[in-house]
Sequence to fold (435 residues):
Amino acid sequence: MDRFRITGGQTLAGTIRISGAKNSALPCMAAGILSSETVTLHNVPYVRDCLTMRRLLEDLGATVLTPELHTHKITAANIEVYEAPYDLVKTMRASVLALGPLVARFGKAKVSLPGGCAIGTRPVDLHLRGLERLGAHVTLEAGYVIARAPESPDGARPRLRGGTVDFEKITVTGTENLMMAASLARGQTILNNAACEPEVEDLAALLNRMGARIRGAGTPQITIDGVESLGAAEHTIIPDRIETGTFIIAAAITGGDLEIKDCIPAHSAALIERLRCAGVDIEEVNPSTLRVRCDLANLKACDVTTKEHPGFPTDMQAQFMALMTQAHGTSNITETIFENRFMQVAEMMRMGANITTHGNTAHVEGARQLMGTRVQASDLRASACLVLAGLAATGETIIERVYHIDRGYEKIESKLRHVGAHIERLRESVTAPLA
Ligand code: EPZ
Fold:
């Protein structure tokens, strides 16, 4: 397994370009299942999770062409398999996004339950209850979800029917799954307490280009008027707001001066507000460019509580914690979305951080000199936290299991090296020759 070697202490300066949003590309790729015509996606990030989603689509029988690294042309004209197998779903929970489209277009689906992951149990009960509200018959068999659309009264193909779905909890992929399922249902569907993330809006924009009739995406109530079929479309994935936030913090934690291009500042408003509160200088140069500077002498502790969008994103909690180890004072970081998202704390403590956790709140003592050492990545965003800590630490940090970070960051080490970081990827050595 590859590792990163980082020599800390470099001040980052220069320009970084943001890639497409993984968490928009994944549902948009799954939306290709809804049509027999070609869906062309631009600005798809070259990350492991998108490669996994591509493999899932091809296993179902779709063709995925990539005329250019960041362009995917998905044609689901010959879907012959309606199953997302365990060995794929266990590696990427977002595979559950195949469920809604398969049931909507073909009337049936068999998708492995995702199982838990490092940050929590990650249930999909809200996805399933929502499909039942659209008339699906859902059973669980040997770790798989089996979903079938109801027979049509007129003998036509089995087809979901519109209904009202009241989400007990806000769920991003649950909203996306139901939006896709409802787009081909008979009649109107209303999603209440829907997720408002920009990625939900981006998926709705693609679906409407394909011929869907969706209103209200980005607000807590989404209305979908089902149509008979969906067609071809071309769509450019929005920039990744979490990659944007991660590089904003890379600039801050090294006391640097970074220009971050191809981003959408408005998608990171809650994060930017907290960082400005902590004393980070963030300037919106133009609608797609930020300039970030920070004098670490002026960096002060700032409390944060994660919330669904437009609140402070849970996917930025670990990265913010890394920065707060360098701030003056003690900050309180409260995680409200996932039950076990402080996986980075133990490794940060090994680097010299002083963090105590009580329930879902971490108390981070600031102005700590971090020391480089060997650390282990555990999940995608905890890995990003360790990279940021390594940039700030004295000495050399070796981060193991960087496949976690490759899931959601495109070429992070070359982007950081480009602006002055001393970071290199140590490829897993081939097995040593037999003695
Ligand atoms: C999406 O995951 C993102 N992934 C996550 O990003 C992100 O952390 C999360 O939303 C929250 O913003 C993708 O978009 C591919 P949820 P998702 O359903 O949809 C509970 C990253 O780092 N819940 O919004 O799986 C759940 O346990 C990843 O890029 C149920 O109880 O998250 C959690 O506590 C990590 N039942 C809360 O809701 C359900 O059926 C929010 O989960 C579904 C969710």
Q: What stands out?
A: The longest helix spans residues 48-60.
